[in-house]
Amino acid sequence: MTTKTTTVLTEEPEVPETASSAPPKVGFVSLGCPKNLVDSEVMMGLLAQAGAELTSRAADADVIVVNTCSFIESAQQESVNTILEMARHKTTGQAKKLVVAGCLVERFRDEIQRNIPEVDAVVGTGELENILAAAGVARTGEARSPFNILSSRPEGEARVAQGRFSRENWDGAIADLPNYLYDDATPRILATPRHSAYIKIAEGCDHPCSFCIIPQLRGKFRSRRFESVIAEAERLVHSGVREITLIGQDTTCYGEDFDLKDGLALLLEKLAGIEDLRWIRFLYAYPNKITSRLLEAIAANEKICSYIDVPLQHASPTVLKRMKRGGGADIFLHSIEKMRRTIPNLTLRTSFIVGFPGETEKEFEELCAFVREAEFDWMGAFGYSDQEGAGAYSTDGKLSLREIERRRKHLMQIQRKISKARKKRLLGREFDLLLEGTSEESDLLLEGRTPMHAPEIDGKVFVNDVAEGVETKPGEFYRCQVTEAHDYDLVARIIAKA
Ligand code: SF4
Q1: Which atom of ligand 1 is nearest to the CA of 284?
Q2: Mutation test of ligand 1: which of 155, 203, 209, 213 has the most ligand atoms closer than 8 Å to its C-beta?
Q3: How buried is residue 154: exposed, middle or buried, by Cβ count under 10 Å (0-12/13-18/19+)?
Q4: Ligand 1 midpoint to CA 353 (Å)
Q5: pLDDT tens digit sequence for 378-432
Q6: What are the pLDDT digits (tens) for 94-139?
Q7: Which atom of ligand 1 is nearest to 249's Cα?
């Protein structure tokens, strides 16, 4: 999982239905992962529908909302820094209200307002509809309850009994778990480029990973209804979206809470039938949930990108056991071989946590050897971060931050060489490219993505040459040929419209 700062809304939004005569101007800062971004988009949709005006400039906003991340300590710190930065607009600027939403509220609800008096209201991850009251915007029409919040998996109920979701020892948090999930009737305003959108197909997580507090922050796993996802995808495509990325804490459990077998495969296949939708992918697969049926669905459908993101977290069986995840290098290599055999040209992304408590040099070396052998296309490495409330918090054998960082860098060095070699193999090959627009690196370059590149997280494709007669427009698809390969990025030439 990545954390980053996003000032949402780079262009004026399309507002669904407006009502109020003197609407407040609301500005959003969304932190953290795409799952949090979708929550921001839902809150913006609710506000806009009720008549609020949205602005991309914090200095112009009457109400500023900071949607926070609390995944690891650095994310918590970034959230607090952003709240303090936005609080200045209230003390010295024109903002009249500051609202804090998201995961930090689930973790420190009472403490936020106690310690930062500029904060006027907090909105937890299960209370998105409360954004209206928090921002001082009158609701138009009846409040509606999403229809799909009551289902759960037997695993989720078992974990409840084991205390997995307990927040008892968290000062400042309330006991009630979030249980909200938006649906296709919920208004939503995209903060992504017009041609690309995330769809959250599930929320919460039932897994017991001992380094992670997401289950306590987000609640039990629950899926959106199949028809709701399809209806939202159809609406998005109708409004110009050409690429959809399915997200959730664990997308591969999709549908299990309402006894749908192979739910993700069925969903992908149905989405592939939507005319004008060009690319579909899913992120955040759980390793032992990648079934043959899912692989076959990817292999058989051109619109489903040959791309799997499976965070493996480690490769040493003993570390994975302590992480309460299971598996190990041999099992993973076997399943990677099956993925690559079933899906030609598969792009494989993973991420690891290094420096987990008690990780010995030998266990770390097992991870390094695995990375060398597996040859991932994309890989992220995160240093272990201690989380109060996570199972690993009270264990012995914590490594120093310096050692954790040394191991993280070492692993990334190994991957850099692998990535470089894999990118070199792409030289001269042709791919479809979704053009994003002018590059942030230079006005002289265009930038785009191929099916090998998920939005935001993977390397980039820079375009430095366009064949004569081809007009380029952001959001359109082109055929490109790779002309240069770097450690992570590619340079390509657009040769035709695709
Ligand atoms: S699968 Fe594990 S790491 Fe991922 S959200 Fe669930 S508990 Fe956390």
Answers
A1: 4
A2: 209
A3: exposed
A4: 12
A5: 999 999 999 988 999 999 999 999 999 999 999 999 999 999 999 999 999 999 9
A6: 999 999 999 999 999 989 989 999 999 999 999 999 999 999 998 7
A7: 5
